[in-house]
Structure formats: C-alpha cells, structure tokens
Automatic annotation (TrEMBL):
Protein name: NUDIX hydrolase
UniProtKB keywords: Hydrolase, Magnesium, Manganese, Metal-binding
Species the sequence originates in: Saccharophagus degradans (strain 2-40 / ATCC 43961 / DSM 17024)
Domain Nudix hydrolase residue range list: 5-138
PROSITE patterns linked to this entry: NUDIX
Keyword Cell division included in the entry's annotation: no
Length: 178
C-alpha cells in the first residue's frame, strides 16, 4: 500500500456503554483550524506515508485527538467508504472501548468531546435533511441537534451507515436520494 492512499482518510466510530445504553464518541473541531473549524466530527484524519494502512491511520488519529491508545480499541469492522464534499475518500472503522476509558482532548485539534446515545440516533429526530450531488448521484444526510451540537454532513452520513450496518436500523431517505 502507499501511493493509492494519497487523498484518503479514515475515521474511528468509537462505541462504548454508558448510562442509558450504547453511545458513540463525537468531537468538536477547534475553532482556530483552517478546515472544518467548529464542526462535529469523528476522531480521524488523513492517511500519512508512515501509516501502512487506513486502520493504522484511524487508530493513530484517534490516539492523537482523544488520547485513546490503539491497544484499548477493539476493532469490530468497517463501514462503506464514502467521499466528503471536498472529494476525500474516507473509510470509517467501528471500534469499542471500555465505558470508563480516559479521554484526553488534543486542544490543538479539538474544542470538545462528547458521547451521543445510539438510542437518540435510532429515534431519527432530525431537524432537517440535507441533499447534495456527487458524481451525478444525489445523496442525503440528516442533520441532528444533540444538546447544543449540530451533527450534519459526512459525520451524520457515517452515523446513518452505522445504524444500518451495525444495528439493522434503516432511516428513510428523501425521495430520489441514495
């Protein structure tokens, strides 16, 4: 592997048990960043040449951003790769961590970390549905407000796939969207 991973990235969809059931970790990107400032995201980032594969990328970035070392993540599988609106191909990996795992935010990259309950996502209380086109296809993503956080775009699309693949919950797409 190597050059074929240029312009690719990986994220880690971290699951853990919490009060009220299973939950997934989300982050709020720091306001001072040049790209995606203030957006809600999953831990992860761009592939680097020192990474032998995208799983290594996801685990490395998770450790850098939220302080969870790779050996504390039980990797459960992957979700289908998807493209961001900027054309970056991103592979999401699903992992599980202990309910009491210590989180340490890298303040150079993040302003905040929080857990969102899977049950909240299953209820599909979206505030809106965003539609967009990529390579001639129409795609969609829900937009949720959880506490004061707006979860939308690529992150919301990954969460929809998590619900479908890992939990068997299929959210309704708007007519004519993939």
């Amino acid at each position: 592997m190597g050059s074929e991973l240029i312009n690719q990235a990986a994220v880690m969809v971290l699951l853990s048990e919490g009060p009220g059931g299973e939950r997934v970790l989300l982050t709020r990107r720091a306001e001072h960043l040049n790209q995606h400032a203030g957006e809600i995201a999953l831990p992860g980032g761009k592939w680097e040449p020192a990474d032998p594969d995208l799983l290594t990328t996801a685990l490395r970035e998770t450790h850098e951003e939220v302080g969870i070392p790779p050996w504390k993540v039980e990797v459960l599988g992957t979700l289908p790769a998807a493209y961001t609106r900027r054309g970056v191909k991103v592979t999401p990996y699903i992992g599980r961590v202990a309910h009491d795992v210590e989180l340490v935010a890298n303040l150079e990259e993040l302003d905040e970390m929080f857990w969102i309950p899977i049950e909240f996502l299953k209820q599909d209380k979206r505030k809106r549905t965003d539609r967009y086109q990529h390579l001639g296809q129409v795609f969609w993503a829900p937009a949720y407000v959880y506490e004061q956080h707006l979860v939308w775009g690529f992150t919301a699309r990954v969460l929809v796939e998590l619900l479908r693949v890992h939990y068997g919950v299929v959210l309704q797409a708007p007519e004519g969207a993939c």
